User: What shape does this take?
Amino acid sequence: MTALPKEKRSSGSKGDLVLKAVVGAAAVGVIAILVGLGVELTSGSWLSIKTFGLGFITGSTWNPPRDIFNVFPFILGTLITSALALLFGLPIGLGVAIFLSERAGRARGLGAALGSLVELLAAVPSVIYGLWGLLVLVPFMREYVEPTLKTYLGFTQLFNAAPFGLDLLTAGVVLTIMIIPTISAVSRDVLNAVPNSQREAMYSLGATDWEVTRKAVLPYARSGIFGATILGLGRAVGETMAVTFVVGNATAIPTSLISPGYTLTSLIVNQFGTTTDPLSDAALVEVGLVLFMLALVINFFARVLVWRMTRSTKFRV
Amino acid sequence: MTSINQTGRRQEWRRVFDRIMKGLVILAVVIAVIPLVLVVWDVVAQGLPAITLNFFTHNPPSPCSTGQIASGSAMCWGGILNGIEGSFLMVGMATLIAVPVGVGAGIYFSEWPESRLSFLSSFTNDVLAEFPTITIGLFIFVLIVETTRTFSAVAGATSLAIIMLPIVARTTEESLKLVPTTLREASMALGIPRWKTIFRIVISTGRSGLATGILLAIARAAGETAPLVVTAGYLNFPPTGLFQPTASIPYIIYNFGTGGDYANWTTTAWGAALALVVFMLILNLSVKLFIGRKFAGVRAEI
Amino acid sequence: MYPLMQAWINTYSYLQPNVQISYSAVGSGKGIAGITSGLYTVGESDAPLSAAQYAKLPANSTLLTIPISDSGIIPAYNLPGITAHLNFTGNVLAEIFYGSITMWNDPRIANLQSASVAAQLPAHAIQVYHRSDGSGTMYGFTQFLSDSNSTWKNNIGYSTSTLAWPVGIGCLHNAGVADCIATTPYSIGPLEIAYEIANPGQINYGAVRNAYGNYIVANLTNISQALAAGVRNGLPSTDAQWTGFSVIQATFNDTSDAYIYPVSTFTYALVYQDLSASYASTSQAQAVAALNFLSWVVNNGQSSAPTSSGSTLGYPPLPSSAVTLDNSLLATITYNGTPVL
Assistant: This one.
């Protein structure tokens, strides 16, 4: 937008100043919230920070009666479930994005309908995915999927445990469902932002559709898709309710993918209300602080990537 | 001869490969859609038995053993009245907080984009939009719940407002940016002050742009559970005060869904899930009606 | 405990529609903190206050500890083909849950059984389950294990919050434990008796040896009897501190009663004796309503069933000695000098 000529009338400029101040205050407010988040989480966990120091995130014992609080197993659980979600979610999400961006032009009605369906996936609140996960997915995993995995892949440590249903793998599956819309929507915008000239050039060389996608569109959109992936990771790391229902709530380091585990988010929700003294209260808030820093780094990084890709276009993601 | 045959075979392979990849892409879409279909199906199948008129006018039932349920005791059936009223109260309050601040921030991002504050704040806004909601809940827990020493509707509403804010700000900014600069210039050339110009533009795009943002934000807030667990708590009755624990529909799903000892509690959870899903669908469909062609960049998913 | 309180509140609001009782289901720790700060009129706890918690109470205040409900914890298991009730001692249970006993046909288990049952024990590893969340049930169970086995006592102890179980997998809530056991052969886990009574026949469980030497299969009657024995064996006097009191410990060495179930616990209501004091933050109307509710709970609510017929929720009724005690405790609560009830 070009700069607009300044006002000459006094009443106008006073009104302008007021408006600018008011909405500017709102903008400052947004920053204040994020800063306040960090400040309050730090102050609320101060007792725990003083007591455990760095051992909070490197130690593995979570023993409330003895007042020992370490969160390494839960960091591990968060990373494993998120990694699983990305492993499954990236190909699917990218596939959906390619479909909607490159193919949907052909069959407009079907493409739009399917695109809407995938968006609707995101409209369902995560607590409902959690409920469904607990009552429908977990028995399915426990009775069909995991015994099969154990039979064929049990020689690796990854699947060498009693199939439980309430475990990291199931949590990973539920998280996949939650991040597919994120990855696909952002990727679709990124793919749409690739100039048509790129595609046309490849077509004129006689390439097939897939070759156009693979050689002209995807490389161009690479950093944006990477950004979409990181955004999906951010979503997976921060997801609470869907995971809480199915992750198994075990405070020890998990020994396999089909063992129960815990994530940082589920720990907070489940342990909340069972704290008995200021130290355990502070420890729980510190778990939130760890999560805050993790999410901050991931989201910051993701935004930078996506921003660079789509900055020139009208659409801000 | 040989080279032509090889070329022919390579062409053939390229076309086959193309078909395979197209098939995989379609497979990805099918896989993506299956969970949605399954979830909605299960929610409807399990939740429908719970839905009676009483479901919306009564509080949740007592826990009942299998024998008590079989005997048809009236105390074993209930509803989600407390959750409906609590959610309305908190989402309503959150909207009142989030909309003015969000619209204000959106106006600033759109009309003063060259300032450093604008850049920093809109970036922060985007970061906040994807933030884990449990940390936002913990923030309000430390800020409000610990100082007032009680779970409260106010705390719950504040945490929801923080979650809604980035959505409103973003959609306001996007809808304002779509208005051509020429409109602004023409208006100011007529001598209308800048602030009046902005308000006229805001009001004229309000019907579609802002309404979209508000509906999306409401949809987001209505489904949030984690922050409410640590700020609003739960109460088995409709709200008794702004600084009292307050029920909400998502919390009912969480609480009664994991208290699986009692079959009638599980049914209540499914019923609440069905009510919530229907509400979400209505909101999202309304957004689609508003969106039209103008907002290809704004998605329902935020 | 929470479902029972919910059932009581629902039933009571049918009887007294003008009284609205709000119940915040937080853990014992927050409940005690809430009473200490005056946030709640009545607190509820699965365990009496510790000395440290008593120390935090307002000066010159007297907090009454009133048993209002009870429960028993049973060792539930899933052994294909075995329908008999296996015999357990506290010591053997502690070793199983500690991980020292890993096989079902371990001689330490077999020696407790009759010959025919011992022969049926399979040569299979024991899958241990426990609660993943903290609860009064686990508090009672681990207290019993601590009393029975010094290794457990020194390394794990007991608590109302999450414990560092050395072996086994955690399942969420009572229902979760029951579900885990039901779907896993050769598993064992501690379960609240309420589940078994509310869903009869779904789960097998064992007998536990009491101080007298009998192996008792828990039911509503023998749990109630255990609690009566606990009352008999010395409750603290009215307004004394109840730290360290527990039915389990009080009956652990009680050899006089042959048929009590040794893993039985109370749940307590916590109320200040002087409700008009500033630290109690209670109005007169609230005091009257709260005490009427508590009195109803103690005297009428113990059948714990909704008004129509059917099996109960599975919480054993308070023994009459406890009811008498509670009524006398409630009678001492005053507002501005006069008794509330």
Summary: Chain A touches chain B through 105 residues (CB under 8 Å). The longest strand of chain A covers residues 62-63. Residues 312-317 of chain A have pLDDT under 50 and may be disordered. The domain at 47-315 of chain A is CATH 1.10.3720.10 (MetI-like fold).
